Each structure stands twice: as C-alpha cells, then as structure tokens.
Amino acid sequence: MSRHGVLPEADFYCPIPWEPLEIATPAALEAAIAEGSDALLNRIFELIVKELEYAAPDWSEAIGLRQLTPDSIADAWFADRLTHDPFQWAQRNLQEVERNKREHHTVPWRYAILRLHEAIETVVPQFNDADSRRFRQGLARVFIDNYAAIPPESIRRLLALHRAGILRILTLGEDYELQREPDRTLIVHHRQRCEFDVFIDARGQKALKTRDLPFPSLRQQLLACGDDIPDVGDDYTLQAPETVRGRVAFGALPWLMHDRPFVQGLTASAEIGSAMARAVSQQAAGRRRRLWYIE
C-alpha cells in the first residue's frame, strides 16, 4: 500500500565522494539565511533552481522548473510516474539504472538533487513555521524520493513477485484510516475496508517530543526542565538536567528529526555514532541549534 501508488526508484550511478555544488554553496546558503526567516524558503528554492539549471539545463526546461515553486515542485516531480503503471515504470527505471551503471553515466539532475538534500538540510532549522510546513509538504518529498532509492536487486524482486501474481500496489491517498487491533490491522480507504493478519508499517519514523520518551524517569526529568524536545550537544549528549549533562548520549532519530528531516540515512547515522564515540573522551563544544516542532 502506498499513499501515492508509486514504487521507489532504483539506486542510480554517481561519483563518490560527491562533487561540490556550484550554486547552492555554503556561502550562498549562509547569505540567504542572513536575510532573515521571512521568505527564506523562496530564496533557498531560487538557489536550487539555479543549481539544477546549471547541472541539467535540458531537464530543467522540460519540467518547466522556472514556473515551479517550493509548493508545486513535488507534483511536477511525480507527475510522469503517476500516469504510468508502477511496475512498468519500475522496469523502465531498472533498465535505465543498469545501463547507466555499465556506461558509468551519471544523470545530472538526479545527482544534483541528491547533493542538494544534505546542503538544504542545514537551512531547515532557520525556517519559520509556515516555511517549515511548506518544505515538508513539497520540496522535502522530492529529496526523500531521490535519496530513498533502493538497490536494483530489490526492484528485481518486486517485479518478480508481481509477475508471479503475488504482489500488487494499492493506492490509499491521503484520506485513510489505520486501526491496529491485537490480532489484525484494518485499513479503511475510499469507502473500502481491508483486513490483514500481518501488517508491516514502513511509512518511516516521525518526529517525536519529550513526552513520547519510553523511559519514565528520564521523561519526567526532561519535562521538569521545560524541554519539549531533548536539548543535546553537538556530540548528542543531553545538556539538561544538570545531573545527566554529558553523561547520557541521545541519538534516537525520531527526537533528532525536528531540524534534521533526512537524518535517517546511513551517512547521518555514521556521523551521529562518531560524535557520540568522541563524547566518551571529550565534552561537547556547543549545543545544537534549538529545534522547531510541527504537529
């Protein structure tokens, strides 16, 4: 089941380590931030547009990039895929990915989006509430679809299961209900009711707050400090209360997603683990930026 009825695409060939961006550089992003939070997302999107036009001018013109906004780019990104059968699209995409790998060819717009997502993540904590919502509903979906590509072997397995008549895709849309019961899971959508003995929820983690912590004593201590979101240092150790400062490493991803929406990747996890390991021998140099939270 999928909200939009699409399958993830296959991992694509690209140079590693990643090449630096040409337009959306750290200096350009800092300059955009320095102008203030009002209309920050629009200024950042303009840098994204220029980066994509530089890297992939033909694709940018074909998709009408100059006419798009942070709110409409996700619809344009998925538009072609949504008009095709998802398994036929997956087969075409798999063939393209395998051909590009053999030929050592990098699709420039895919590669640009991949590099942009980590650069733009550094700006996310500076968005005001309105831009934060816009980002998550639009541009973030493009980044997530791009970096969440899966191994080609997984695509082959999905296609084989479909050909065997075992696998199909059900499009839920945004208006559906999920009810978990002790012995079954119920899904209600489009006036239909589906019942499953076994249900795997792979929608990904959601940002959580201090009140959601499963450790009662720690939860109460943090709430007593007035921290709706755990306050952690740059080494991911808790900074409050005083009794646990620097002694408890806090790398639980759902509590880090407020200002790092793409933190679930392997690279980010490795960075967090390294920072926590350093905390064993040295104190945090500073705190991470205060986090925003959107219900």
Automatic annotation (TrEMBL):
Superkingdom, natural source: Bacteria
InterPro entries from the UniProt entry: L-asp_N-monooxygenase_NS-form
The protein, known as: Acyl-CoA dehydrogenase
